Amino acid sequence: MSLSRRAVLAEASRAAAVAGTAAVGLLGAHAARPRPPSIDLAGVDPAITVPTATQDLLIVPEPGRVVVFARRCPHLGCRLNVEDGAGFVCPCHGSRFDLKGERLEGPAVRNLSTVATVPR
Amino acid sequence: MDERDGRLASGSKAGRGWTQRFGLPTLGALTLGALAVCVVSGVVVATGYDAARPVDSVLAFELGRPYGWFFRALHAHSAQLGLLGLIAHTLEYLARGGERQVPPGHWVVVMVSLPVTLYLMLGGRALVGDAEGLGVAAVMRGLLEQLPVFGAAAADVLVGANVGGNMTLLLTHHVSSATLLLLVLTVAHLKRVVPDAAATAVALGLSGAVALAVRPAVVLSDAPVALEGPWYMAGLRLMLQHLPAWFAGLALPLSFYLLFSSLPWLPEARVRAVRFVIFAISVAYGLLIAMAELT
Is A107–B224 a contact, with Cβ atoms under 8 angstroms apart? Predict the structure, then answer.
């Protein structure tokens, strides 16, 4: 099978046109996407006594305050679960974090991001 | 191979498959038959699906509709059969050197079909909206975000934020845009979309029999310790546990895909070696899947 230079150029320009259109579409969609609402802390109960997970948050009681983390693994974004009240585990790839949000083991390379601290 | 119309004639040497020796349809025909079963059963499943309450609607469909459990299982298992057929068909094609017997545009169509199929499969698992489905959606999003420059945009467009488990965007792609794209690619590949009746009957029989015996999982625990994900991603899951995400989830699969895609354009002298590398990587990934499933 042999291709002429003209045929290769025609194929390449078609591919470039498709890729360019896709790129413009992607960037446009990204720019126009709805921004996520600011995190609602109304559901955070300062009186909790054990580490708790809500749909999007992890809430950890500390003396005089509760610390709120995003319930999202910094590795690939899976929802973290509370593990025996002693820390957090990612069910997707096994990253573990302590109650201060610091990485203990697993493929995640960053600590949990703190969303807020709420006095109590 | 009939190069005039760019399709494989079923009676030609390149179009004949080893399955025909046993009186079975070709792998390509079986894959198209499975796709037909999957699309039809998918329409039935979609009638009960609610993107805002995914897992509740899936359970209501499965438990409350007459034969709902069967249609959902048939949809899931025909998709698995289609994927297996596609993998086997592609490897069979590769073993025969089929990629060098077709026009380059035809090979591009085939290569584009592979990620579209994978996207449809993963999207389907994510749409269940259970803990595993949300995990699949998060990993799809997380891996797309590793792409330079366009990563976040691609994740927004292809997966969405899935905030609160709302699956509207994924559903839109799953039932319309991605499925339509796959059908267009199928027509471009085969010059037809209506499957062979015998192959469809075999696909229906096989996936129906499995559907009667095995119901696809719904992970009802809100806080599972470990999620397994689809079996074909098990090797990737294992790699992601030990290697950086950009490398295991993006660089390695993309390199393999680009190597695979480049086959028709490689110098004749290198093709044999590259084909061997592709087979070796495929076998290695199969072993990784087995290792992940057994541990």
Answer: no
